[in-house]
Structures are given as C-alpha cells and as structure tokens.
Amino acid sequence: MTLEIWTDDRLERLAGALEMNTQITANLAHGQKRITDIIERLATSQADLADSQAQLARIVERIDAKLDSTTAAVERLERIVDYLLRRDAEKNVEEKEGD
Fold it and tell me: What is the spatial distance between Cα 69 and Cα 63, in angstroms, rounded to a whole number?
C-alpha cells in the first residue's frame, strides 16, 4: 500500500473541482426550479383553458337553444304570412265574384 502525498497543488485542484461541482449543482438546482415554475404556470394555463372551454360549451348550448327558438318563431311567422296571403287572395276572389 502506497501513501499518497497531497501537495498544495493537488489540494488546490481538488478544491477547484469541488467548487466547480458545487457551482454546477447550484446551476442545476436553479434550472430545475425554473422548470418547476414553468410547469406550474403551464398547469395553471391548462386549467384556465379547460374553464374557458367549458364556458364556451355553455355559450354554444345557449346559442343553439336560441337558434332553435328563432327557427321555430320564423316558421310560425311564415305560416301566419301564408295564411294571411291565402285569406287575402280568397277575399280578392270573393270581391271579384261579387262584382
């Protein structure tokens, strides 16, 4: 078994490597925190998007209901106009026959 001699130069290199390792670890931790923050913001954005989609679905349902109601009202008005046109035409025929 040999006994290694730790010279000042060797100790300085070891201390430098340790310092660099510590700095790299700190940089990695900082990067990981930034990634975690981004993921949290993304999750919040996704939840907001889901809420917006749900609101949009409710709006579309209301629009569909109003469209159905409007379509039914237009059909009723068309029947009324048809009835009035037929009635006026019949009156015109009766008036011409009465003349």
Answer: 10
pLDDT digits (tens, 9 = 90+) for 80-89: 999 999 999 9
Nearest by Cα to 19 from 31, 7, 27: 27
DSSP secondary structure letters along 21-83: HHHHHHHHHHHHHHHHHHHHHHHHHHHHHHHHHHHHHHHHHHHHHHHHHHHHHHHHHHHHHHH
Number of Cβ within a 10 Å radius of residue 94:
10
Residue 5: left (phi > 0), alpha (psi -120 to 50), or beta? beta
pLDDT tens digits, residue range 31-52?
999 999 999 999 999 999 999 9
Residues 6+ apart with CB under 8 A from 71: none
